[in-house]
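Slide 14.
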Amino acid sequence: MGGRRVDRCSFDDTDQAPPRAAMPPMTEASRLAWLRLIRSENVGPATFRQLVNHFGSAAAALDALPELARRGGARARIRIAGLDEVMREAATAAACGARFVAMGEADYPARLAAIEGAPPLLAVKGGSGVFRRPMVAIVGARNASLSGRKIAGLVARALGEAAFVIVSGLARGIDAAAHEASIDTGTVAVLAGGLDRLYPPEHAGLADKIVATGGALVSEMPFGWQARAQDFPRRNRLVSGMSLGVVVVEAALRSGSLHTARFAAEQGREVFAVPGSPLDPRAEGANELIRNGATLVANAGHVIEALAPIIGRRFEPPVASEGDDDFDRPFDVPETARRKVVEALGPTPVGVDEILRATGVRPGELHLILMELAIAGRLERHAGGRVSLLM
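Slide 15: predicted structure.
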């Protein structure tokens, strides 16, 4: 791996930017309203976007939440984040040297905005210049072998020298090796908890180096949030979503790294894997990815060769912007329409188009009903725009 020359990729700082101009910076009042909305009970990224598009602003959506929850069948009053609560969080962010960046603003990672369920707000600490350069994720085992860590470092260093930013999750093992090797060329660490709750805590020094050298720490979770097991898959979808492709170095068959690879495939990203010994359980996942069609990687040149045609390709990611409207926006629906939709739903995920065909309700009515059910805590969203009813 060590002797191959890697050519620097040709790109400029706009290679990942959408062709239309980014929206201007938000007012402080709008940013706090966005923060209140995403911190409110039962409002995830997909529901957030639908609410803002439907009601025209986060402030109007906040006013509508209690009635939406009631119509959706909520059994108890839902919790709506208060202004004092989010102002305290904003003050904590500022004290930590972090800021909140909204989807559509210039500092928001453009490719991340294109994924399904992209977070409307990101807490960011560090430089934003790395978000305007092409990124590659490197992930793998926490209990990585010496060989695995060496390979991850070699690939990360070579990709960094070729002008790629390395994205990973700040975990032990492969993640740490990838970050350390790309400190000087640019790296982004995506956290599963709040930016003030680093995990693992022994990587605080590494996190400080990332920020000090122009890299960035990123999280969609609230400040003060301690990462739980179920938060790491959420983190992994951001790691892959920011990136052109994901390189897996050592991964067991049931590892979180394979979740990242699955997210990458669903998001239309390239999936790469470094092969390992059939005798090492840590290599089983990467070997299985290769068997199922992932690109085999023996050196960084293989990654660069696969990604070179993609780097200059422009795209226009969807953004959640106040006043955006791509369907009719009723403020209430007939009870018969609501009943038809609820009857059509069940524990098995179905697509929105299927529901429209089966019920005959208008698209705007269906979107409103699904929002009501989501706010009431009765709807679960799945990949591919499918939904199911929580029984």
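Speaker note: The longest helix spans residues 146-161.
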